[in-house]
Structure prediction request, 107 residues.
Amino acid sequence: MIEYHNSRPLRIIGPMREVLTRDNLPPRTTTRWVASRKAQVVAAVESGLITIEEAMARYNLSLEEFASWQRAMDRGGVAGLRVAAAQRQRHERSHHAGSRVLEATLH
Prediction:
């Protein structure tokens, strides 16, 4: 059941079947973004619980970062957010490893 206040929901059912309100969304100080927290923010924006502008300001997110969460969620649900993070980490590790190899060959 969704309750509305000024045409905005007061609560929604989140991606893990939990009741989400503005008060129990991930804290503004969140720095460790596990898949479930990302999914909660995406669900809150998509349902109108908060606006995308509020999410970006509240969590210091870029539009590109939020959009990547949405795409990952659309493709694979909460699990898709985990996969996206793992792929990003693999890419960063390979990029850093390549930089170290390049530095070693230059010195």
Q: What stands out?
A: The longest helix spans residues 63-106.
